[in-house]
Design goal:
Number of domains of chain A: 1
CATH superfamily of chain A: RNA polymerase II/Efflux pump adaptor protein, barrel-sandwich hybrid domain
CATH topology of chain A: OB fold (Dihydrolipoamide Acetyltransferase, E2P)
CATH class of chain A: Mainly Beta
Order of helices and strands of chain B: HEEHEEHEEEHEEHHEEEHEHHHEEEEEE
Radius of gyration of chain A: 13 Å
Strand order of the largest sheet of chain B: 10-11-12-9-3-13
Radius of gyration of chain B: 20 Å
Largest sheet of chain A: 6 strands, antiparallel
Order of helices and strands of chain A: EEEHEEEEEHHEH
Oligomer: heterodimer
Number of domains of chain B: 2
CATH architecture of the largest domain in chain B: 2-Layer Sandwich
Largest sheet of chain B: 6 strands, mixed
CATH class of the largest domain in chain B: Alpha Beta
Strand content of chain B: 25-35%
């Protein structure tokens, strides 16, 4: 499994053609306390750059943008009852989607962990 | 763009880990490491200090200042007793609200506090219209709000006079040897004080209050969720130059004599709305789901017609769910009425509720 990062502060862990997508600890820190997560349903198709959900913190609403093309396999149901998990383990239990990627080459446009670290400074 | 201004407490905010943002041209802490929810709860449960030095403190000196101010506001100030404060607003010629403010009878003069975002409008407005009155902008004093059920214990430990004040009363008293104006009011729905402190002593006195274990700092984020839960309007969001005080559900803040006699800008519209009812009314709106309804969200009646829009909306930490305020058109707005909110294209059920969401806790 390889993990990539987007400029929208998402992490994408790829195994075969299945990618698990979440927000980075840096993003969670910036958002502040998350109070609600709006997710798409399984089987929804999307293209890279589409809005595929919204994270509401006490402060504001922030869109989740698709880092790759694909189809939603599973939305993490835990976030419905416990949105605050996104602050506690954004890069662990609190993943947002598992998706089936339709173009595996798109990971080439994403960043490595080292690149992401320098991206956020 | 001019550089944002800093209050006398700026260095203290940075030292305490405040996340500084530009707010109405001032560099202010939106939150500290505790976070908005923790800071909100700190204020509801114990005591929180907010830096509100960005708001303008103004003194009106001269004969008949209260009477002259009545020509700009639909409030009664000539009958405001020395040592008492009153919430009010400037109205414009079309009956909209130019800004809201707190007016205090300081004995020999009038002391008032206006919003940071409107100070550059309000001060020239008063200078142009209060003939023979000196409008003195106070720029060498900080203003802090100490709010919460423990605020009295925190402040009175250094200033016994503070305990004697009742809600909407003001006095001048020493805190650790420094002469301060202390007013028992605030904008969180909780008991507490706003304290005007000479700028050179502001950090020291703030630290003195923070020595109390029940007291901590809170930022603008918590201030917003606290005032929203308490049903208090935010100028620029819930009320503005277009909305009248009757529409803004602020009829309570206009005294009987002023409503009857008029004699303030826009009186014809305001008196007509008082008699006939306003075209729209600001109400509390409680989304039934978990999604917060932010400003701008459309409000529909259950039949699906648009009846208004949300003007303030967020997650209410004390309520434990989303809370909002917004306008609904005439014929709507009874507490208990079901409405729909259109959030990101989806219809979400909500109910019109009586404000505030959280009972105000003032010391009457």
């Amino acid at each position: 499994m390889s993990t990539y990062y987007s400029e929208d502060h998402e992490w994408i862990a790829v195994e075969g053609d299945i990618a698990t997508i979440g927000i980075t600890a840096h993003a969670a820190e910036q958002l502040g306390e998350v109070v609600f997560v709006e997710q798409k349903d399984a089987d929804d198709e999307f293209e890279k750059g589409d809005e595929i959900g919204v994270i509401e913190s006490v402060k504001a609403a922030s869109e989740i943008y698709a880092p790759v093309d694909g189809t939603i396999v599973e939305a993490n149901e835990m976030l419905e009852g416990n949105p605050a998990a996104l602050n506690e383990s954004p890069e662990g239990d609190a993943w947002i989607y598992k998706v089936k990627m339709s173009d595996l080459s798109q990971v080439d446009d994403l960043m490595s962990e080292a690149d992401y670290k320098s991206f956020i400074g | 763009m001019t550089e944002p201004r800093r209050t006398p407490l700026y260095d203290l905010h940075v030292e305490l880990g405040g996340k500084m943002v530009d707010f109405a041209g001032w560099e202010m802490p939106v939150q500290y490491p505790l976070g908005i929810m923790g800071e909100h709860n700190q204020c509801r449960e114990k005591a929180a200090i907010f830096d509100v030095s960005h708001m303008a403190q103004v003194e009106l000196h001269g004969e008949g200042a209260a009477e002259k101010l009545e020509a700009l506001c639909p409030q009664a100030f000539t009958t405001l007793k020395p040592g008492k404060c009153r919430y009010g607003f400037f109205t414009n010629e079309t009956g909209g609200i130019m800004d809201d403010l707190i007016v205090s009878n300081a004995g020999d003069f009038i002391y008032l506090v206006v919003n940071a975002s409107m100070r550059d409008q309000d001060i020239p407005h008063m200078r142009a219209n209060l003939e023979g009155i000196e409008v003195r902008e106070i720029t060498d004093r900080a203003l802090i709000a100490v709010q919460g059920p423990k605020a009295e214990a925190v402040v009175a430990a250094h200033c016994p006079e503070a305990a004697e004040l009742t809600f909407m009363a003001t006095t001048v008293a020493d805190i650790d040897g420094v002469s301060c104006r202390i007013s028992r009011l605030g904008y969180t729905g909780e008991d507490g004080y706003e304290i005007s402190i000479p700028e050179g002593d502001a950090v020291r006195l703030t630290r003195l209050f923070l020595e109390n274990d029940d007291c901590d700092v809170s930022g603008l984020g918590a201030r917003d969720s606290l005032r929203l839960e308490s049903g208090l309007c935010l100028y620029g969001n819930d009320i503005n130059g277009e909305t009248s005080p009757v529409e803004g559900n602020l009829t309570w803040a206009m005294q009987k004599r002023r409503k009857e006699e008029g004699g303030f800008p826009g009186a014809d519209r305001i008196q007509r709305e008082l008699a006939e009812g306003p075209a729209k009314l600001l109400v509390g709106i409680k989304p039934e789901g978990r999604a917060p309804a932010r400003a701008g969200v459309e409000v529909q009646c259950v039949e699906g017609n648009t009846i208004g829009a949300i003007t303030s909306g967020s997650f209410g930490p004390t309520v434990g769910g989303p809370v909002a305020m917004g306008y609904v058109s005439k014929g709507h707005g009874e507490a208990g009425e079901k409405v729909n909110l259109v959030i990101r294209g989806k219809t979400q059920p909500a109910e019109i509720v009586k404000l505030p969401f959280v009972q105000q806790n003032y010391k009457r």
